[in-house]
């Protein structure tokens, strides 16, 4: 029996399936068969030179998808019409990997002009990056189109901050169709890459005006961090590994760190202060396979946020500007 309320629920669900159906694994199979190899070659070459590029590409994809959906908006330079996302607080002097995306795009344009979106290239590059760093592999569905605009303001509002409480961070994920589990799982990305001292320095000296450091920071990590991030402004931009134990490996060490009070960001360690998220952290710290599987699944969800398809948007010729 069709309850009237049910049709409200079922129709949007059905539309969501149709829309997602416009992304598929074979989207460029005939129009750009070498696409996956071109992305792979470029990411692995860059990774061999500098392993940090894996972290940079993964984060760039995340910051793209959380602002206007995965539409390549993060790649756009400022124009007379809009202030882009590159100079938003969470991105400025922080997100990296644009040069690699530009190199891939140039190779892809040579092989298949005006065919492959920058949004798809970034999604594929993030997957390759994780795999290069020793993490899981997953199938990426394709057919995203590139957006026509970017928003500095939306980047400032939508991207999570390491200084905000867990419930606020969860709310930002929820508003993108992700859930608490995705927060815990995707935070596992902090098993690779670096953070600048200013993103966690508030924990080191006078935490919440207590005159003492953050009690949930392990004393020996505290000593190390106080050494590399002395309490002067001059140290603000110094880099520290997010995962001190296996900095370049995409593994489940992030969760082992949290269990041992070795989380770097306040927002990382906060996952242990909530019963529901702490239970998940414990599981992932014990079962690397569980983390690999769930990370792959959450990355697929991340890559599907707010995608535009069909005739919407465009296929940019260069990722930094609209055609
Ligand atoms: C849950 C909320 C999150 C917060 C508050 C957060 C915050 C941060 C901060 C502050 C940094 C250091 C940036 C800098 O110092 O320049 C960072 C780095 C990083 N984040 Fe997150 N992040 C979050 C979630 C994620 C997610 C979901 C991903 C990817 C799936 C991710 C991937 C990364 C990576 C790979 C780096 C290292 C980048 C590099 O070395 O270039 N983060 N994050
Ligand atoms: C190799 O990595 C360094 C940074 O570690 C970078 O400055 C340089 O441009 C990279 N070289 C190539 C060919 O990508």
TrEMBL record:
Residues 22-323 form the Plant heme peroxidase family profile domain. InterPro entries: Haem_peroxidase (IPR002016), Haem_peroxidase_sf (IPR010255), Peroxidase_pln (IPR000823), Peroxidases_AS (IPR019794), Peroxidases_heam-ligand_BS (IPR019793), Secretory_peroxidase (IPR033905). Ca(2+) 2 binds at residues 191, 243, 246, 251. Ca(2+) 1 binds at residues 64, 67, 69, 71, 73, 85. Its cofactor is heme b; Ca(2+). Heme b binds at residue 190. Substrate binds at residue 160. GO terms for cellular component: extracellular region. GO terms for molecular function: heme binding; lactoperoxidase activity; metal ion binding. Keywords: Calcium, Disulfide bond, Glycoprotein, Heme, Hydrogen peroxide, Iron, Metal-binding, Oxidoreductase, Peroxidase, Secreted, Signal. CDD domains: secretory_peroxidase (cd00693). The active site is at residue 63. It is found in: Secreted. Its EC number is 1.11.1.7. The record marks 59 as: Transition state stabilizer. Residues 1-21 form the signal peptide. It catalyses: 2 a phenolic donor + H2O2 = 2 a phenolic radical donor + 2 H2O. It is an enzyme of class 1 (oxidoreductase). Disulfide bonds join 32-112, 65-70, 118-319, 197-229. One of its GO terms (biological process) is hydrogen peroxide catabolic process. Binds 1 heme b (iron(II)-protoporphyrin IX) group per subunit. Binds 2 calcium ions per subunit. Belongs to the peroxidase family. Ascorbate peroxidase subfamily. Removal of H(2)O(2), oxidation of toxic reductants, biosynthesis and degradation of lignin, suberization, auxin catabolism, response to environmental stresses such as wounding, pathogen attack and oxidative stress. This is Peroxidase. It comes from Daucus carota subsp. sativus (Carrot). The lineage of its organism: Eukaryota, Viridiplantae, Streptophyta, Embryophyta, Tracheophyta.
């Amino acid at each position: 029996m069709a309850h009237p309320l049910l049709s409200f629920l079922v129709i949007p669900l059905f539309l969501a399936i149709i829309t997602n159906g416009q992304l598929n694994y074979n989207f460029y199979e005939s129009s750009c068969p070498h696409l996956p190899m071109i992305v792979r070659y470029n990411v692995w070459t860059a990774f061999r030179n500098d392993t940090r590029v894996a972290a940079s590409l993964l984060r760039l994809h995340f910051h793209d998808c959380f602002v206007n959906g995965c539409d390549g908006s993060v790649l756009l330079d400022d124009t007379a019409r809009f202030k882009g996302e590159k100079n938003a607080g969470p991105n400025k002097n922080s997100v990296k990997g644009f040069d690699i995306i530009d190199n891939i795009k140039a190779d892809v344009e040579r092989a298949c002009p005006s065919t492959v979106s920058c949004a798809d290239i970034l999604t594929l590059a993030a997957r390759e990056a994780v795999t290069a760093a020793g993490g899981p592999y997953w199938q990426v569905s394709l057919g995203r189109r590139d957006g026509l605009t970017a928003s500095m303001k939306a980047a400032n509002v939508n991207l999570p901050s390491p200084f905000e409480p867990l419930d606020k961070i969860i709310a930002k994920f929820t508003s993108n169709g992700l859930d608490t589990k995705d927060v815990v799982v995707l935070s596992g990305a902090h098993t690779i890459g670096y953070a600048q001292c200013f993103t966690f320095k508030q924990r080191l000296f006078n935490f919440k005006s207590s005159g003492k450091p953050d009690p949930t920071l392990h004393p020996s990590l505290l000593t190390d961090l106080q050494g590399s991030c002395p309490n002067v402004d001059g140290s603000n931009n110094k880099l520290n590994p997010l995962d001190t134990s296996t900095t370049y490996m995409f593994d489940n060490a992030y969760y082992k760190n949290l269990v041992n009070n070795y989380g770097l960001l306040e927002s990382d360690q906060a996952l242990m202060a909530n019963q529901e998220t702490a239970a998940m952290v414990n599981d992932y710290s014990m079962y690397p396979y569980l983390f690999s599987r769930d990370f792959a699944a959450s990355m697929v969800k991340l890559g599907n946020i707010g995608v535009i398809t069909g005739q919407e948007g465009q296929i940019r010729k260069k990722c930094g500007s609209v055609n």
